[in-house]
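Form 7-S
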Amino acid sequence: MANPGPATTVTPNYLFTGDASNGDLIGGSPSNLVGFHGATPVVQAGAITAISNSATGTEIATAVNAIITALKNKGLTA
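Output:
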């Protein structure tokens, strides 16, 4: 059976401007909304408290869970 192709088509917006030395910026300020893979765009996540070498299990779990939440909210992980 032949592949019928995608159900819908989209035109991508490419970020590369031809001058790699300048890089590319997504979301020019913390209040700009950004989303990936169909996720609803959201503002930048708040700061995650740094943990020390003597951090408790709860402190480590809190930091890791904050990272997971930030990644999920942006659509970078399910």
